[in-house]
């Protein structure tokens, strides 16, 4: 779907450029931005290699697992319907730990695994459970201590202090995660009330 959107934007830009007589400007912009994209990509290699290397060390040293242990008490309250010894809980904890450390590549398969395991606990296979909604909401907020990719982009773009976004990013993701949890809990109460009313009517 995204490919169609990009294609529509490109074709629309060319058509508008031709209709307004700015064909040369469109051509110049395309060439100039293509050059900028290559320069930015090359500039990202060193920074991304550094951060990904550090994150891989954290993963191999057991830091991810350690953060997972710290998160378990919180997980009990966020996912009361999921048994603590169920594989879904382990995948959820590992996914959150990977996201916190900025290990996006490691977090993605863990997130998919968590959803698959949560589906095994789902009695209504065509409807998401409260645990699924909660996991998706928190995962979308993606609380991150070190935004390695954003830091890399800023460094490649010539930022004087590329890591200064760590603080604001952490505050923003924490606020979004707390907001997501509150909203999901509110909707959970609504759904429980609806179910109880249906049972009473029956």
Shape: globular
Distance between the termini: 44 Å
Give the C-alpha Rg: 22 Å
Structural class by secondary-structure content: mainly alpha
Total number of helical segments?
8
| Share of residues in helices | over 70%
β-strand amount: under 5%
Number of discrete domains: 1
Order of helices and strands: HHHHHHHH
Main sheet characteristics: none
- Write down the overall mean pLDDT: 78
Low-confidence stretches: none
Task: Provide a descriptive summary of the structure in words.
By secondary structure, this protein is mostly helical. The chain has eight helices and no strands. The protein has one domain.
In short:
The chain is mainly α and 202 residues long. It is built from eight helices and no strands.
List keywords for this structure.
globular; 8 helices; mainly alpha; about 200 residues
List the helices and strands and how they pair.
Layout: H1 2-19, H2 23-60, H3 63-78, H4 87-100, H5 104-120, H6 130-141, H7 148-156, H8 166-201
């Amino acid at each position: 779907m995204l490919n169609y959107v990009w294609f529509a934007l490109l074709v629309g830009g060319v058509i508008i450029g031709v209709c307004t007589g700015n064909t040369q400007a469109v051509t110049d912009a395309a060439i100039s931005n293509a050059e900028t994209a290559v320069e930015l990509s090359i500039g990202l290699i060193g920074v991304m290699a550094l951060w990904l290397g550090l994150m891989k060390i954290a993963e191999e040293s057991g830091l991810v697992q350690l953060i997972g242990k710290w998160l378990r008490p919180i997980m009990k309250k966020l996912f009361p319907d999921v048994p603590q010894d169920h594989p879904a809980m382990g995948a959820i904890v590992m996914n959150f730990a990977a996201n916190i450390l900025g290990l996006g590549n490691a977090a993605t398969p863990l997130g998919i695994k968590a959803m698959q395991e949560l589906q095994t606990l789902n009695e209504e296979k065509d409807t998401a459970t409260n645990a699924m909604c909660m996991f998706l909401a928190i995962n979308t907020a993606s609380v991150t201590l070190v935004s390695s990719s954003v830091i890399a982009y800023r460094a490649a773009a010539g930022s004087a202090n590329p890591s200064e976004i760590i603080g604001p990013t952490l505050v923003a993701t924490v606020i979004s995660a707390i907001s997501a949890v509150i909203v999901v809990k509110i909707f959970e109460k609504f759904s429980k009330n609806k179910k109880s009313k249906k049972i009473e009517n029956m």
